[in-house]
Amino acid sequence: MRKRKNRQTKIAASIMLRFLEIVTILLLLTGQITIGGVFITPDGFSLSLSGLFTGRRIVVGKTEQAKFIQDGLDVITALLLILGEINVIGTYITAGRFTIVVGGPPFGLDKIEAYVPETKEFFGDYEEMVFEKCNVYKFGKRE
After folding, report:
1. Is residue 143 one of the residues assigned to a domain?
2. Which domain holds residue 65?
3. Which CB contacts under 8 angstroms, 24+ apart, belong to 68-74?
4. Is residue 142 part of a domain?
5. Among 25, 33, 128, 131, which residue's beta carbon has the most beta carbons within 10 A?
6. How confident is the model over 49-79, as pLDDT tens digits?
7. 3-state secondary structure string, 57-109?
8. Pairing of strands 97-103, 87-94
9. Total-model pTM
């Protein structure tokens, strides 16, 4: 019985992570977020995605060629997310803003699997930031 519940919980966490990836794809393809930075680790690197939605200004290339390259990189990032080659691995939260961090095997990092405690914490942080940015009151939560 316990194994079945753990399996169901892991499936639910996987679905939540995939949903977050789909939202990230839509934000990338609509220009609401773009690659704003790179985190370099000993094993590889991950991309930081930010924009007005996350409380940061949009990074825009100064020339038409730079804008074209930036748009191309955003499309490639979205395609890698669609294909499941990379995934959302976390957020980087600072005062009043956050970034969505993506990474995976093409960038030298391990594929992230759904791990329930980390997923709950991640979605809690993400939900709190979205509610704050969108000026939405969360019903049912009392402090």
Report:
1. no
2. 2-133
3. 70/34, 70/35, 73/35, 74/28, 74/29, 74/31, 74/34, 74/35
4. no
5. 33
6. 988 777 777 777 788 898 889 889 999 999 9
7. CCCCCCCHHHHHHHHHHHHHHHHHHHHCCCEEEEEEEECCEEEEEEECHHHCC
8. antiparallel
9. 0.69
